[in-house]
What does this fold into?
Amino acid sequence: MLFTDIIRRKRDGGELGDEDIALFVNGLADESIAAEQVAALAMAIYLNSMNFDETSKLTVAMANSGTVLDWSGEDLDGPVVDKHSTGGVGDKVSFLLAPIAAACGCYVPMISGRGLGHTGGTTDKAESIPGYRTAPDFETFKKIVKTTGCAIIGQTADLAPADRRLYAIRDVTATVASIPLITASILSKKIAAGLGALVMDVKSGNGAFMESFERSEALAHSIIKTAARAGVATHAVITDMNEVLGTTAGNAVEIAESVRFLRNEQREHRLDEVVMALSAEMLVAGGIESDREAAKRRCGDAVESGRAAEVFGRMVAALGGPADIVENYDRYLPRAPVIRPVHAKGIVSAVDTLAVGNAIIELGGGRHKVGEQLDLSVGFTDIAAIGTRLDGERPLAVVHAASEKDADVAERSLLAACSLSEDAPEATPVIYEILDGDA
It folds into this structure.
């Protein structure tokens, strides 16, 4: 069978069979299929979609394309549960949620991705911590999860290698926002990680891959249904992404905000609501709590008591980072040479969040092509939320850039991305819907 026949079949709206999917996945894993052919099939799938059977088969095949972890022999005294986000701007939730859930009795083997399109990548953010190893061997990974409660690492060559290659090609070929490909990409890694339960943060809005609530809900149902076929109990929380989440967007700057959150010093209200909802859902999905409100209280106590910060610090140290990252994060995180405020006047009434994400790419904090090295120090801090009144003193944001020229470009991009008015906009929800495994 020629791979061009498979591309042609999907291009013309046909259904891919078992042999087609097996050839595709094997060719991804061993790199026997050329990148341009992978891109062509990805675009055909993006344009013509896949049905549930195709999506399920692609997901399982990609999960089985490499090592599949097994936690059954580790004598863990709590559930193995994880969270995954469909991607957003300023989404540093993983660095908060993993230690919070671990402090509450979960074991969280979080295998994350790099930046995809305009959205930041958890793996890239972790690498802004000096010494932090995002690709330990699996025995080390399992040991850290068992002893610390959580470990956040990047996707290794052994785990779902078919997805690893497809993920990178989708990033640079405008084929990210495909429900079947997102479903298969997310779940292949999670199935391979040996999870007992999964909580999805499905973003919705102008900074998400799924801009409309209807498409976000469709993606949530696709993931829940496909995961159920693979035996992974999955809940989904649909959250707002019509503005940056938290007060920072970038790599190192998001780690800094995460540490301040865990130290209970700065908990921006939208970020806090999303983190608490998702953390609580992990406890419910994992069977630690049956009541969501009780679970939220337990998660809140994990932050306020300092237990979550302690877990984060132990995790960072175990993965090679500084042992005192929680106490002295400013000493270790990279700092951009140019840091300056962007001023405007009026009330922030709307944000083109996609444009903000693209501005970070232009600063060097995101990728134009596969494998491109990032400047982990750049981004935005002190980002004004929608509804904030700017009076010439309070900045719209603070730019962190490699040069004055880059800062000028970022300033123009940010001002163009934000709408200002004389009247405050109506408040909008942060959590749209929670779907459990029966959805």
Remarks:
- DSSP finds 17 helices and 13 strands in the chain.
- The chain has a mean pLDDT of 93.
- The first strand starts at residue 81 and ends at 85.
- The two ends are 39 Å apart (CA to CA).
